[in-house]
Write a structure and sequence with these properties.
Blueprint (H helix, E strand, L loop, with lengths): L1 H8 L9 E5 L3 H7 L4 H22 L3 E8 L7 H24 L2 E6 L7 H13 L6 E9 L1 H17 L10 H6 L11 E4 L18 E4 L9 H12 L9 H8 L1
Parallel strand pairs: 1-2, 1-5, 2-4, 3-4, 5-6
Helix pairs in contact: 1-8, 2-3, 3-4, 4-5
The structure holds farnesyl diphosphate.
Length: 254
């Protein structure tokens, strides 16, 4: 607890990342290390979700996006996919009250049409019941992949060109961004991946062009508030140059 206070004290609240994206990895290995089925790891990942969302909201982070189920995850054994879907339904339902108590709005990105009806319904209900909350937006990326989202945006743009609403010369980065799943979601300044894997695995590909990456060796079910604080402190010690020189950045600050 005291250690947490020390870490919180080391965070500059005026320079918080507005949006933190998280690849929650390592549930399967966490379970296997304990001689359990992979699903046991997913179940225990829920506590890490709770702690992370709570810690981010308490600090004043405005958006958190969790990679909860990728397009590629559909290729896992049916038993695991079914268990994950069931876990989503149960967790989303159980957490509505906590989300409301913490003034957190639940939202989602991804191919939601491909989710099974029960999950979709539960999700829509939770999004509706938390829609009035304003402290932080918690996005679940479900049946999501960055390439899928870019293809989806391309389809929207091609449709506009086809029906004469848009001239191809008018296609620019701003327009492409506005065709992403959640156009009001700012690009993440910080992306955290757990479990010691150094990949971004098709997550928010368009939005992470200039995102700082933080890799934690912790397996997701072990991730706690202090791990989020450490990632933010590390982020705040970096110099973000966006293609400029270090001198230019220092002069701008002056
Ligand atoms: C990756 O670990 C994790 C997932 C594919 C699912 C994440 C889901 C949860 C934490 C469940 C609850 C989430 C919400 C938002 C309600 P892995 O299975 O790839 O682990 P491994 O790399 O060790 O095999």
């Amino acid at each position: 607890m005291n250690e947490n206070l020390e870490l919180i004290g080391a965070i500059d609240k005026t320079r918080l990342p507005k949006h933190i994206a998280i690849i929650m990895d390592g549930n399967g290995r966490w379970a296997q290390q304990r001689g359990e089925e992979r699903v046991f790891g997913h179940n225990n990942g829920v506590q890490a979700v709770r702690e992370t969302a709570e810690a981010a909201a308490e600090l004043g982070v405005k958006f958190v996006t969790l990679y909860a189920f990728s397009t590629e995850n559909w290729n896992r054994p049916k038993q695991e996919v079914d268990a994950l879907m069931h876990l989503l339904v149960v967790t989303i339902n159980n957490e509505i009250k906590t989300l409301n108590d913490n003034n957190i709005r639940l939202r989602a990105i991804g191919n939601l049409e491909s989710l099974n009806p029960e999950v979709k319904l539960e999700l829509e209900e939770a999004m509706e019941k938390t829609s009035g909350n304003s402290r932080m937006d918690l996005f679940l990326a479900l049946s999501y992949s960055g390439r899928w989202e870019i293809v989806d945006a391309m389809r929207k743009i091609a449709g506009k060109v086809k029906n004469g609403e848009l001239n191809p010369d008018e296609i620019n980065e701003k327009l492409v961004s506005s065709c992403m799943n959640a156009p009001d979601l700012p690009d993440p300044e910080l992306l955290i991946r757990t479990s010691g894997e150094y990949r971004t695995s098709n997550f928010l590909m368009w939005q992470t062009a200039y995102t700082e990456l933080f890799f934690s060796s912790k397996l997701w079910p072990d991730f706690r508030k202090e791990d989020l604080y450490e990632a933010i402190i590390d982020f705040q010690h970096r110099e973000r140059r966006f293609g400029k020189t270090s001198e230019q950045i220092i002069n701008c600050k002056g």
